[in-house]
Design a protein that fits this description.
There is one protein chain. By secondary structure, this protein is of the alpha+beta class. It is built from 9 helices and 10 strands. It has helices at about 20-25, 45-60, 125-145, 150-160, 160-165, 170-175, 180-190, 200-215, 220; strands spanning about 5-20, 30-40, 65-70, 80-90, 105-115, 195, 230-235, 245-250, 255-260, 265-270. A 5-stranded antiparallel sheet has the order 2-1-5-4-3. Strands 7-6-8-9-10 form a 5-stranded mixed sheet, covered by helices on one side. β3 and β4 (about 80-90) form a beta hairpin. α3 runs antiparallel to α4 (about 150-160), α6 (about 170-175) packs across α8 and α7 crosses α8 (about 200-215). The radius of gyration is 22 Å and the shape is elongated. The mean pLDDT is about 85.
């Protein structure tokens, strides 16, 4: 099945007309007549997804805040197909508008889907999926303002990375940290900042940041103030502060952990990650 494993589809949403009250009663709640045009996808056949999203779009049930939906099951192995979808609205005219003037806008629907045994675990990554779709929206803006092969390829590359970025960071971080894992877990739970050397790959920084944010309890235990930054990249202007844990790389890309106690631990070679 083309929905197997994990896929993406980006639709451009065009409202054809408003549906009047009489038609709405006849159509089962449709508020608008919408056309969803495939901008890019890695699905050979997106008929099932298109039908599901069109039902939502015609009833104005696609929102800027991400939602999780379960598609009708047509897979031979009877696995569940879960879809996360977001409405991305872009202003296409940057000129200042008076209060009574409507802005010209383009609307896109970002859809990412995967097969799962059940839907219990997928919702745990909702904040990661929301953050990823914010990145996608920025990429859509670049593509919308300058539509060419390069911007389309960049958009496709980002969309196709949704599963490794939003889900697999957990296993990558665990594999990389190895014996450092208890220290990192304790830091996340205690709200201790982890600093990372400038030489670390950006993907490693992203993984550790998402991992720490997923485990940290400060958003539950803190009643006021902005959430604490748990991970940051150090620089000569912003060095490691007392009490922080520091991750660094040596010339052979071996990962070192310097704990506040002064203890140094050596772990994985990041060349393999």
């Amino acid at each position: 099945n083309d929905m197997a494993k994990h896929n993406y589809c980006l639709y451009r949403k065009e409202v054809l007309r408003e549906v009047d009250a009489h038609e709405r009663n006849q159509s089962g709640g449709e508020e608008v007549e919408v056309q969803l045009i495939v901008e890019c996808t890695d699905l050979e056949d997106e008929t099932l997804l298109h039908k599901y999203m069109l039902y939502k779009a015609n009833r104005n049930m696609i929102y800027p805040n991400g939602q999780i939906g379960i598609l009708p099951n047509t897979t031979p192995n009877k696995k569940m197909v879960i879809c996360f979808f977001v409405l991305a609205t872009l202003d296409t005219d940057d000129r200042p508008k008076r209060s009574w003037e409507e802005k010209e806008q383009k609307e896109y629907v970002i859809c990412i889907s995967c097969e799962v045994e059940n839907d219990e675990g997928f919702g745990l990554f909702r904040s990661n999926l929301d953050a990823f779709c914010i990145k996608v929206k920025k990429e859509i803006e670049s593509y919308s303002h300058n539509q060419n092969e390069a911007t389309l390829t960049s958009l496709k590359d980002l969309l196709s990375s949704w599963y490794p970025y939003t889900i697999e960071y957990v296993t990558r971080t665990i594999d990389t940290m190895r014996q450092h894992l208890p220290t990192i877990l304790h830091a996340a739970l205690a709200g201790t900042t982890v600093t990372i050397d400038q030489t670390a790959p950006p993907t490693f920084v992203d993984d550790v940041t998402q991992f720490m944010d997923a485990i940290n309890l400060s958003h539950v235990t803190s009643y006021h103030g902005a959430p604490k930054q748990l991970v940051r990249v150090v620089s000569p202007e912003n060095p490691v502060a007392p009490g922080e844990i520091h991750l660094s790389l040596d010339s052979e890309y071996m990962l070192h952990l310097d704990a506040p106690s002064g203890e140094r631990q050596i772990s994985a070679n990041l060349i393999s990650t």
